[in-house]
Request: fold
Amino acid sequence: METPRPLARRLAAIHPFHVMALLARAREMERGGRDIVHMEIGEPDLGTPEPVVAAGVAALARGDLHYTPALGLPALREAIAGHYERRYRVAVAPTRIVVTPGASGALLLALGLLIDPESRVLLADPGYPCNRHFVTFLGGRPVPLPVGVESRYQPTAAAVAAAWQPGTVAALLCSPANPTGTLVGSAALAAIVEVVEGRGGRVVADEIYHGLVYTDPPPTALACSQGCLVVNSFSKYFHMTGWRLGWLVVPAGYEEAVDRLAQNLFLAAPTPAQHAALACFTDETEALLAEHRDEYHRRRDLLAAALIDLGFRIPVVPDGAFYLYADSSALADDSFELAERLLTEAGVAVTPGLDFGDHQASRHLRFAYTTPVERIEEGIARLRRLFG
Amino acid sequence: METPRPLARRLAAIHPFHVMALLARAREMERGGRDIVHMEIGEPDLGTPEPVVAAGVAALARGDLHYTPALGLPALREAIAGHYERRYRVAVAPTRIVVTPGASGALLLALGLLIDPESRVLLADPGYPCNRHFVTFLGGRPVPLPVGVESRYQPTAAAVAAAWQPGTVAALLCSPANPTGTLVGSAALAAIVEVVEGRGGRVVADEIYHGLVYTDPPPTALACSQGCLVVNSFSKYFHMTGWRLGWLVVPAGYEEAVDRLAQNLFLAAPTPAQHAALACFTDETEALLAEHRDEYHRRRDLLAAALIDLGFRIPVVPDGAFYLYADSSALADDSFELAERLLTEAGVAVTPGLDFGDHQASRHLRFAYTTPVERIEEGIARLRRLFG
Reply:
């Protein structure tokens, strides 16, 4: 009998997150009695707003637990359309809105609509690693656009134009971005959309951190072009991580195709989460979420000042999300080794730049401020002792 | 400006379900005041067992709403391993069990691990259409194995061996199958596994209807070979459809790769559903589920006898699931036209064979007994008037 065949080739290009090994080590240290300050986790620590939980409980009590239509509960698709109208003054027909199992589901649908084997997709380096892995999963080729301080860690229209070649089908923009927290400016976004759509491609805009912006609220990419595919999520701003709910906005004309894909890939997004999410767009919930946002804002300012004081460089203050992407080159040659040292010597867990790409990765660490102020202060005190 | 590029090529091979058009027509008729008996829906009508709902409510109340590990709550993976031990007397290490967003998530992971572009996967025709669409989605080629009465609608080892060629990587077996409800017998399963593994391939076994069997309880494919990938679900037997929860068992050695894939594709399965599912494996819940199974059994016997009396042929009485695959050729030349007629003239919605493949599709209808006995009786009375 032969040995069963090896794994599919795509697995070779889908890398583990380095932070997972650090996290496993941190858990081991914790089991050994060590206290760890967690600043590596990309998940809000503040809980799901109480009215949203209550709506979920009510759905369970009613027995609203059957499949919804593949594209989502009609009432939720309408509520999301209302959100675009209210927050952005942009009209989006509910028929173009697909409720998905997390932003992950939205990305899989968006790229599933666009990518053929060998298709090229442009994305920022550094960037969220799952994005390039989705491209790989579908047989496409992620093309990294190295981004740095000079463009506030976002791709420029010139860089997109220069990287475009036959077989390129899309550019994926994340605004605010993970790990850098920066926005694509309105003018830059318009210029990129013009380059991409002028070449017959599509912009896929990841706006999952949109509510968590501490500067002027950004416009949605849909304000720039209704040809964009917009990915969003109930996980970050709405604090519904474990519920697994997101959405995708598709251009007019894609409704039937995305319905077919969603039917086959997911059947539907989780029903309890969809009913709960109906309570996201009320004044009561919005007021709670605004408090959460202010809390993250305070944490950002506190942590950024402290890190700069410690010798990190943060040449671009992030506009949003809950991350600081800090240049550690004045403190260490290699940020992965530094991350290990912060964990083992100071009991502070952070994410090495290596997890976000290749470009200047060994010079950067990502600090997530998804832990309460007193824990951030404890982490800072430990780093001060380590470096002081 | 050029027209944005057309959709990815895979969309051309992912067909809409014909029943969706019928369902839309049925909904329209209902809005017009017409009463429709629904026997087209592959979703249990009986609700999620109360202890499971209660466990979900408790998790929401506790605020257990953050991401779980990508492979699932450790306690749930252990409970599933216990289920294999108790029900099948088969040892499966919890580390080989992946909790997924529905069986859909499990199929995407299983095929993502096995399929390269152009890889061939053998599957029964008729069969559940999403299965072949998952293969297509990943750039593979679904290879239909026509199955009929002579093999109780299941592939044989001889058919698998004859269809195997360079580039074939897996055979997907569904037992009980949708739409036919038949099991692969133990000896046939062993012979198929030997053919597939002997050629360096893998058997993927879909066992989502396993608890809903009205004959002798079937063995799991894992009893035959621990090299099989087994897909299962909390949707059907456990009646948790809208919660979106399933699982995948992978062979030893695949644990790290499937963790990487799950991290990137889903992050994790829905947290409320995972906590709720912990209550699936108690004596109290099992007793309720046994009552549900007995109810479906009664419905099967009632509906099968009535359909045969009406002139349908059911040469193979299904072992399980909640479907009857009925040969309508004595009543009509084309089953799609017949399905339209049953809907418009009798107000009875069923699924045409066309949705499940090409082999003898126009001779068959699928009746789902996912509606209460009195509604099934009403449907039968209407068909009697139509044909009588």
User: Anything to note?
Assistant: The radius of gyration of chain B is 21 Å. Chain B touches chain A through 78 residues (CB under 8 Å).
